[in-house]
Every structure is written in structure tokens, then in C-alpha cells.
Amino acid sequence: MRRIAQNLAAHLEQNKDLAIADVAWTLLEGRKAFPYRRAVLCRDVSEAIGGLLASDGDFGISGEAPESAARSFTLAVAPLTSRSLKRLATCFNRLPALRNELRVCADPENGGFSAADAMSRVIAAPEIDDEYLESTEGQLLQLSLLHGLAQWLISAGLRPHMVIGEALVCACISGAVSLKEAFRRIRAQDASIRPAGLVLPQTAVEQRRVVLGGDGDRSCASELQLLRTVAELWTHGLVISAGALYCGEQRSRLPLPTYAFEYQRYWVEPARTVPERPGRLNGAETQVHEKQPAQEQPAPAEETPEIHYYVPSWTMTPSFKIDLRDRFAGTHVLLIHDDLGQARHWARRVLDSGAPSVAQISRGEGFRHIGDG
User: Fold this and answer.
1) Which residues in the chain are classed under CATH 3.30.70.3290?
2) Does domain 1-64+250-267 have CATH number 3.20.80.10?
3) Cα torsion at 322, 325, 326, 328 (round to 10°)?
């Protein structure tokens, strides 16, 4: 993974004019996710290079996805403070995908609350006091932002197993209460919903907690913390939809470095042999070959061919003597000459063994008819 990050950093160093959003889109849509993962939070190519080459910290997140069938998290909804409301409104204003979620609130069928206009007033205000948070518009805006943020996470593939915290917001996120009904109850100051949490219909094996609202360091009330939370969930195995992350944006896929080849050698070295040592087995001569560990046997300075090659050859046998005594006694023998000149030698030996006569035939130069009979 470190080599992949280095290769990508080197590519970005040579192509600093690339749009970092297109780089992120390509990596998310065009690469298969493996168990070992790393994410980098950045705003431009320079920050991306620094995050890729640095160790884990504020902008680099590494994790290992467990090999389990279901992975999810618990969504905890906390009340917004004046500071976190302003930060969350700014986050919605900066991210087009989040702004799209506010259109649902403006639909007359859902209560017709213009969350975008209220959000603009909050961003423009020097500060927000507690009186605004308790007002009808303040409560409607808080519900709109928290509901929109939760719906955006769900549309991105990050569906929580459980929602706990603010009763009305939890009921609205889980679908127990419609957005229109939630708006009506806020306008009517109806606080009849009391449950502290509602469970969504999904089975989970691993549990992590994501905090919406509040004012703590782990709260998804700022753009940085929101994206960091999404990155952490992805590095721990959750699947993220790139289409939801970049909803309303036109992104392009870019040619980027592929996965690095490790160049690790797994060739099995041949076993080395010691010089042949003669032995005996059942009285016969044998050759014994002993294998030695490759790491203990030093390489020979000059390898000899007989170690690696086998050349077939005839096996030499000792000469033998033929005893012809009395073998041809009283027998007439016909001897055919060969081209090696051995016929005359054998003719003398046959006569010496007692043969009365030896007729010798040699090859002629052609065929000729010399008569009948």
C-alpha cells in the first residue's frame, strides 16, 4: 500500500494541473477495494501529495476491512449548539451533494420549509444565540440539516444499524415519522414523541458510532470531520457510492497509476549435489548422491558439464575366447567372407579344429549365369 501511495504521489507531482475531485472519483469508481485501505483528506493536489507520503494523522487514515458479510454503525443524534449549527450550515453550503438534500424540505408536500434561505441567514449572521436555537425556524433548520445529513449518508451506502439520540430527529430519520409530520409538530410545539432511539431494520456484526450534531471533536458538524468520518467508515469496510458523494457534479475519470507490482522472487532454486561417492549394495558398485541445503553449500567456482548433462554411450565389455577344439571334426564348413578380412583367419582355425574342408565365398562384382545344375 505504501508503494501504491508513492506511485500516485509521483504521478500527481508530474501532473499538478489535475482536478483533485476527478482523481478521487477515478480512485473510488475505477479501483477495486481490498482489505487494506488508505484515505487522504485534501483540498488540492499539493495537499494530496503530502497526505500520500505522510504517515497517518489529521489528513491520512489507514484501516483494515474485516472479512465479514455485514458491516454497519450506530448513528447518534445530538442537539446542535449555536457554534455547531453555523458550522453545519457552512458545510451544507460548500458541498453540492448536501445542498440537494434540502430540496426535500422545500417541497410543499413535506411541509414547505425553505431550509436553504434559513441556512443563508445563519451563515451571514455574526453569531447565533440560544434564542434562535429555540425558535420555530431554528428547530426546523436543525431538523432539516440533521435529517439531510443522515439521508445523504444513507444514499452514499452508509446505512446505520441503529439511530439514537434526539427523539423527533431519530423518528424522522428512521421513517417512523414523516418529514411533513415532524415539521407540523415543531410548528405546533408538539413534543409527544419521547423514545430515545429507534432501530432501523438491518443486521450488523461490527458497530461503530457516528455522531451527528453536538459540538465535540468527533461530531460531523464540520466539513473536515464529516469527510473524515466517511473515510474512516470506508477504511473499515463499508461500501461508498461515488454517485452520492458527487451528486450534482460532473466528474471525469483520469488515467492514474495502477496497483504496484511487488517484484518479489519466488523461484525455487535447484538442490545442489556433493561429488559422487562410491558405495556397495548387495555386492554391486553403486553411486551415492547426497543433497545439501542450498544455503549451506557454496556455489562452485566453475561448474563442470558432468553435473548437469548426461551423454549416452556404449558400455565396454571384456573380450571372450571361443574354444573350437573338435567342434568341426568330420564336418565340411562353408565360410562367407566379410569386408573386415576376418574370414581367412577363421578358415585356418576351422581347419585346425578337424574340419576336412572349408569352402570360402566372397562377394563378386556382379551376377553371371554359368550354366544349369
Assistant:
1) 1-64+250-267
2) no
3) 50
Q: How far is CA 328 from CA 25, 182, 320, 355, in A?
A: 105, 132, 20, 5
User: Residue 103 to residues 95, 99, 338: CA-CA distances in angstroms?
Assistant: 14, 7, 114
What pLDDT, on the 0 to 100 scale, is given for residue 204? 40
DSSP letter string, 123-150:
HHSS---HHHHHSHHHHHHHHHHHHHHH
Given a contact cutoff of 8 angstroms between Cβ atoms, the answer to whether 113 and 155 are in contact is: no
Q: Residue 320: its pLDDT value, please?
A: 58
The SS3 call for residue 209 is: strand
Q: Which helix (H) or strand (E) holds 350?
A: helix 343-352
Choose the CATH number for 66-236 among 2.170.150, 1.10.287, 3.40.366, 1.10.3470: 3.40.366
Own/partner pairs, 362-367, CB within 8 angstroms, 24+ separation: 362/336, 362/337, 363/337
Phi then psi for 187, rounded to 5 degrees?
-65, -35
Pairing between β-strand 74-77 and β-strand 162-165 as defined by DSSP bridges: parallel
Tell me the average confidence (pLDDT) per consecutive run of 10 residues in the chain, 373 residues long: 88 92 89 86 90 78 70 85 90 85 83 87 89 90 91 87 87 88 85 44 57 78 85 86 80 86 75 55 48 51 52 69 71 79 79 81 77 68
> pTM here?
0.61
pLDDT at 311: 64
Paired strand residues for 61: 39
Number of neighbouring beta carbons within 10 Å of residue 10: 14
